[in-house]
Amino acid sequence: MSAPLMTPELVRLEVDPPGDKHAVIGLMADLISATGRADRDGLEAGLLKREESFATGMPGGFAIPHCRTDAVHEAALGFLRLAEPVDFGSADGPADLIIGIAAPAGTDDQHLKLLAQLSRALIRPEFLADLRAAKEPQEVSELVMAVLEPVPDPAAAPTADAGTTAGATAGAPAGVAAGSTAGTTPAVTHGADADTSAPVLLAITSCPTGIAHTYMAAESLENAAKEKGVELHVETQGSGGITPFTQEQIAAASALIVAADVNISGRERFAGLPLVEHPVKRAISHGPQMIDEAVAAASDPSARRVPSAAGGESSSDSASSGTKQSWPRRIQGAVMTGVSYMIPFVAAGGLLMALGFLIAGFDVAFVAQDVATSFSLTSLPGAQEYEGASGMMQTERAGLALYLGAVLFTLGNLGMGFLVAALSGYIAFGLAGRPGIAPGFIGGAVSVAVGAGFLGGLITGLLAGLVALWFTTLKPPRWLAGLMPVVIIPLLTTLLVGGLMLVFLGRPLASLMTALQDGLTGMSGSSAILLGVIIGLMMCLDLGGPVNKAAYLFATAGLSQGTEAAFQIMAAVMAAGMVPPLAMALSTLVRRKLYSPVERENGTTAWLLGAAFITEGAIPFAAADPLRVIPSSMAGGAVTGALVMALAVGSQAPHGGIFVAFAISPVWGFLLAIIAGTLVSAALVTVLKELSSRRQGAVA
């Protein structure tokens, strides 16, 4: 039989805070691990990771750091009552009550339901007051366990059936009402004085871990509805399981509230219902306002509504700051959707290309496709001829190494070829849902064809999404409605967006690239260091876009001349192009709290992408924060380009990064230039993000 979730040994009162919230979380890890229920370091890491992605400070002066991790052997609740409150990120002030929730990675449903029940109790001021008034750890433990394992009162009236009432349960501690802990809560009714004309509301709550905020938001909304005489049903999409709304509840509903920080399931059930949507934390702190907004939306013909399945589900339908999300936020969300779907192409394609260089040598880039398609494991190639810097040359390697390297390089090159199309397609999807995917992908392909690259993909993605979204607002006849999302919208949107790129934007972009190449050619003999600065700036300006490609094409075209100047330009291009992903990887390593969990994961991949001269590895960071990432990258790229030219570093390889070090001379100069540029860029972007974070904290 497992021990109770909280015992007096897990409670500390009037604790002098050892520092900021990170130090308090470390103290919580000490407290719980001392009972043998968790490994201290693993638990602290899990709690800190959760805190960095989502601050756990709550209105009412308490915080609930929590996590599920393999470092926890047995579920536990720790409690610290601080002598001086500490800031845990709540807008209404610091917290003096710290309730730590440690759940094993394989926590069963029963534990999760108990934790959900505690989360509901924490939203009640009376329960918090009892915790603050407790004199001994035993009192705190009893208060908490009374919530988790309430003792029924034999004299209490029988509990009403689900779907009728959710009132206070006799035997619960002061201010604590029992209720459903997971799934659909019973409807809230209000006796003879209830307003029978009030609308029926549905609410869905969900947070990333599904342990605490999900159920606190549900409790806050239920309490607000009860006070206002509004009938409310809540579906908690948490870790304790989901019990969906019944068809009868959905049919009777007048509006839907979504309080979530993750995608909710089953949104299509509510097509056409007026919608009020906010982050889960707002439901906890502003439950009454959200109820008022939903009541108003129920009677407003122009209110935002849940999109139909035919119209698609846009990512802009998530976590808005009001009943209708602002356009800047919707566009930002769409861009981030495109970036998130593009990342696997960057990782898979870039790493496969790097492996190809490692196995077959730098010159595999010249022969990869022919070798991969013309030979096999039973018919291995010999050394292959290609046109190099000084005429016809032969690959350094042959046989199995050349064949396998060519296969890997070809796979990676094909994968990288989808970057712009995937970015464009999923940006359009983020704005318009499924009808935007096809025109977005085709628009991205057109961007590549006209040389618009990464920037063109952003433009075509946004255009395709906005145009397709406008088409979804039309009200076609019933006989035509079924063809709109699968035929008519993709067709017309592709025609408009693709035609615009081909007819109006292609030639100006081509002219721009030609002008850039001509300008670079004219400078190559005059000021090598200045040329290195310009090359570095160009390589980092758009991270694989037309300006970047103009510099790269200029360098590769010069290789055919076989001159030292051409080799130096190639080295400057490659070294500067390696700086942005390496700098972002370094910044995410030294200042992890400035980046989201996804960005930190991307930072890990960016090490290898940068080392292999895959500049696109920095695109996810630039798309999320272009005003800080791009200028910082350009500064570091300029330093690297200047150093390469000043040290007369030359590269006979057109690609490969550090994997083609044997084709670079002197290697020490190449590495020194990259390290210097990476340090400059990483320092700048870290400082800029730190300043921005402090300003946002001051405003909050």
Protein model, in words:
The chain is α/β, with parallel strands linked by helices. It folds into four domains: 8-107, 3-Layer(aba) Sandwich (Mannitol-specific EII, Chain A); 183-306, Rossmann fold; 326-507, no CATH class; 524-700, no CATH class. 55% of the residues lie in helices and 10% in strands. The chain contains 24 helices and 15 strands. It has helices at 21-33, 40-53, 109-122, 125-133, 137-148, 213-228, 247-252, 280-285, 287-298, 327-360, 364-374, 399-416, 419-432, 437-450, 453-472, 478-481, 484-523, 528-541, 546-559, 564-590, 597-611, 619-624, 626-646, 667-699, and strands spanning 11-15, 57-58, 62-63, 66-69, 76-86, 95-104, 183-184, 200-206, 231-236, 255-260, 275-278, 385-388, 391-394, 650-651, 664-665. Strands 1, 2, 3, 4, 5 and 6 form a six-stranded mixed beta sheet that branches. A five-stranded mixed beta sheet has the order 7-9-8-10-11. The protein is globular and about 85 Å long. The model is unreliable at 154-196 and 309-324 (pLDDT under 50).
Descriptive tags:
700 residues, alpha/beta, Mannitol-specific EII, Chain A, Rossmann fold, 4 domains, 6-stranded mixed sheet, 5-stranded mixed sheet, 24 helices, 10% strand, globular
Topology record:
Layout: E1 11-15, H1 21-33, H2 40-53, E2 57-58, E3 62-63, E4 66-69, E5 76-86, E6 95-104, H3 109-122, H4 125-133, H5 137-148, E7 183-184, E8 200-206, H6 213-228, E9 231-236, H7 247-252, E10 255-260, E11 275-278, H8 280-285, H9 287-298, H10 327-360, H11 364-374, E12 385-388, E13 391-394, H12 399-416, H13 419-432, H14 437-450, H15 453-472, H16 478-481, H17 484-523, H18 528-541, H19 546-559, H20 564-590, H21 597-611, H22 619-624, H23 626-646, E14 650-651, E15 664-665, H24 667-699
